[in-house]
Amino acid sequence: MIKKGDIKKINYYVKRLSPIPKIGDIVNTEILNYKAECVILNYLEVSWTSKAELKVSCSVKILELEEVLQNSNIKLLK
Description:
Elements lengths: L6 E8 L11 E6 L2 E15 L5 E14 L11
Antiparallel strand pairs: 1-4, 2-3, 3-4
């Protein structure tokens, strides 16, 4: 269970030619089954992926959480 105010380690992916978030910037991401608005506290690692994206591993503090509904498009088959 996660809640507002928690500090978590996340991997944040930045598309090619997009600005890299700085410490103190607010980012929107998904953590488990939640959409989260987080502030970046520090960087742990920065590396390139095979898709030419920048993978930023960082610690974040959760500011806002919104639960994402899972399986909303599943229909029962008889």
